[in-house]
Design goal:
A hairpin with a 4-residue loop joins β4 and β5. A five-stranded antiparallel sheet has the order 1-5-4-3-2. Strands 6-7 form a two-stranded antiparallel ribbon. The radius of gyration is 19 Å and the shape is globular. The protein is built from 13 helices and seven strands. Among the domains are: about 70 residues; about 90 residues, Orthogonal Bundle (Endonuclease III, domain 1). The mean pLDDT is about 95. It is an alpha+beta fold. The chain starts with a strand and ends in a 6-residue tail after the last helix. It binds a DNA duplex (13 and 12 nucleotides) through α5, α6, α9, α11 and α12.
Length: about 280
DNA sequence: GATCAGGTTTGCA
DNA sequence: TGCAAACCTGAT
């Protein structure tokens, strides 16, 4: 199917914004996306301002519309940026099209636990390995693809298997997270009812989850658009451009979106300077 | 083959 | 409260 884009939407910028690790770049502005037990191939048609998706209307309405956060108006969020803030204005302008996906909370939590002290390629490899070893095979032709494992699947995974996924010291964190949830729990949806502050505390209660991973999980897995993860990159930005501190009161409740613009913009510039290493 | 990577915990002042 | 050191292992 094809669908007309109505506001900010750029597949490449989303793919490179560091929030998702199961998007694979293909040729011609096309990405293969794995989410839940589904696969989607999406192509951006810049000439017509459309998106081409290899799913039906019903699948789009029933799943991908929500996943892609189709109904949030990012243009109006972007327009909140103060023109006096030169860095953020430039970032929002340049990174127009970034969106915050509505990813599965459990997958997001575990993925960001894995992310600590790993490069993005290494994170992707680890997530693929874990999915292959513990997740369901996604039905369909072509190469075998695997869904991210559920709570139960990770709990049931023999410790040796988990240890063989190349997760290093994070193995124990993941093991603990799966064991700490009630037997019948399939995900973390029960936490959705919590307010931001309570959710933050619930997440940091998991071993191996500190401030940064908790905020990433809130932003990308629970769609709390005000969560403002501070990693080394954001800290560099704040040091360079906001020596007096970034005013979190100003853009509430959309601090997380602003963070994404800043992050993507700064990273893109850093990559342009040092294409190989990343720094 | 050394160095580093989108962090957290632990131990010690 | 604040600051280092240690932690596994893939990627470069």
């Amino acid at each position: 199917m094809r669908i007309k884009l109505k506001d900010d939407f750029d597949l490449r910028k989303i793919a490179e914004s560091g929030q998702c690790f199961r998007w694979k770049a293909c040729q011609d502005n096309t990405y293969r996306i794995i989410a839940a037990h589904r696969v989607l191939t999406a192509k951006q048609l810049f000439a017509s301002g459309e998106l081409e998706l290899d799913c039906t209307q019903a699948e789009f309405q029933g799943f991908w519309r929500d996943y892609l956060d189709w109904d949030t108006d990012y243009k109006s969020i972007r327009n909140r940026v103060s023109t006096k803030d030169h860095f953020l204005s430039a970032a929002a302008e340049e990174e127009q099209g970034v969106r915050i996906l509505r990813q599965e909370p459990w997958e997001t939590l575990i993925t960001f636990i894995i992310s600590q002290r790993k490069s993005i390629p290494a994170i992707k490899t680890a997530v693929e390995t874990l999915s292959r070893r513990a997740g369901d095979r996604i039905v369909g032709g072509g190469e075998p693809l695997f869904a991210f494992p559920t709570v139960g699947q990770l709990r049931a995974l023999p410790p040796a298997e988990l240890a063989a996924c190349g997760l290093g010291y994070r193995t124990e964190y993941i093991y603990d997270a799966a064991r700490s949830l009630p037997e019948e729990e399939k995900s973390l949806y029960a936490l959705s009812r919590l307010g931001d502050e309570e959710l933050f505390h619930a997440l940091t209660a998991f071993k191996g989850v500190g401030k940064k991973v908790a905020f990433c999980t809130m932003l990308f897995g629970f769609h709390r658009l005000n969560a403002f993860p501070q990693d080394v990159w954001v800290n560099r930005i704040l040091g360079e451009h906001y020596p007096q501190g970034f005013d979190l009161g100003r853009y509430a409740p959309y601090n997380g979106v602003m963070q994404q613009y800043m992050f993507a913009y700064y990273r893109a510039k850093a990559d342009a300077r040092a294409p190989q290493g990343g720094r």
